[in-house]
Design brief:
CATH class: Alpha Beta
CATH architecture: Alpha-Beta Horseshoe
CATH topology: pyruvate-formate lyase- activating enzyme
Radius of gyration: 19 Å
Number of domains: 1
Distance between the termini: 18 Å
Shape: globular
CATH superfamily: pyruvate-formate lyase- activating enzyme
Number of helices: 7
Strand content: 5-15%
Order of helices and strands: HEHEHEHHEEHEHE
Helix content: 25-40%
Largest sheet: 7 strands, mixed
Length: about 250
């Protein structure tokens, strides 16, 4: 699933996002395409792109990649999925994830320090941790590492949106959502560990938010609107201007 874009076409997508009012260009899991993304970003800058780039990743990065990205990134937005070797091996299929993630996150915080303006962060690193069902002890380990190594140097985003994908056979406890007790326990860890800067998410009640990339409009939220779809690239305007010609659910 997907479509091939030239660097100039990708630059056009970036410019469309800006024209539609986006406050940043959010690159999600783009590590395998770093050279092309940076070339597209450089072209987009020459064509008027002024919003920052957000590097939204799993945290599974090399330090060399972090340093290559740093001059071009406004915010690093990595995951701190788990520092538990068994979870990394059995569920992430990357036994080296804990060590690689720790090193990458430290490199991100060094390369993109927090910068504030009018009481809000305008540059920096925001570390996300998704609380998993049945894994509060593992969350404690991850948050304790964050507190010791990144508190004051990055911001934490504690997330509770884990949702089993309907129709997938998952073993317990990953076949269910977070309980109210687990939500309260995870929030209690913030107070216990003295983590007081960042964000936390309210529990997600159901799976309605899950995207379906087979649909022309993958997200059901009324707050989202398409600027490009992998199956229909005709929505890309060469000048990155507003999308006056796109109407209806096929936009």
């Amino acid at each position: 699933m997907g479509a091939e874009l030239s660097e100039s076409e990708l630059a056009g997508v970036f410019l469309q996002l800006q024209a539609e009012g986006a406050e940043n260009v959010n690159i999600v899991t783009g590590t395998q395409f770093v050279p092309g993304i940076l070339a597209a970003l450089a072209e987009a800058r020459t064509r008027g792109l002024s919003v920052p780039m957000v590097w939204n990743s799993s945290g599974y990065e090399t330090e060399e990649t972090v340093l290559r990205l740093a001059p071009h990134v406004g915010f690093f937005l990595p995951d701190l999925k788990s520092l538990d070797p068994a979870i990394a091996r059995d569920h992430l299929h990357a036994a080296d994830y804990p060590e690689r993630c720790r090193r990458a996150l430290l490199a991100m915080a060094d390369a993109r320090p927090l910068r504030w303006k009018d009481g809000a962060p305008v540059e920096g690193t925001i570390v996300r941790h998704l609380v998993l069902p049945g894994c509060i002890p593992q969350t404690r380990v991850a948050l304790a590492w964050y507190r010791e190594n990144l508190h004051g140097r990055a911001l934490l985003s504690l997330m509770f949106q884990y949702t089993p994908i309907p129709g997938r056979l998952l073993l317990s406890p990953f076949d269910r959502m977070i309980t109210r007790h687990e939500h309260a326990s995870a929030l209690g860890l913030l107070e216990e560990l003295g983590i007081d800067d960042g964000f936390y998410q309210e529990p997600v009640p159901d799976s309605a938010w899950l995207p379906d990339f087979e649909r022309p409009r993958p997200f059901s939220s009324e707050l989202s609107r398409m600027v490009w779809h992998w199956r229909d690239g005709t929505s890309i305007r060469p000048d990155g201007g507003p999308l006056e010609t796109l109407t209806g659910e096929d936009s």
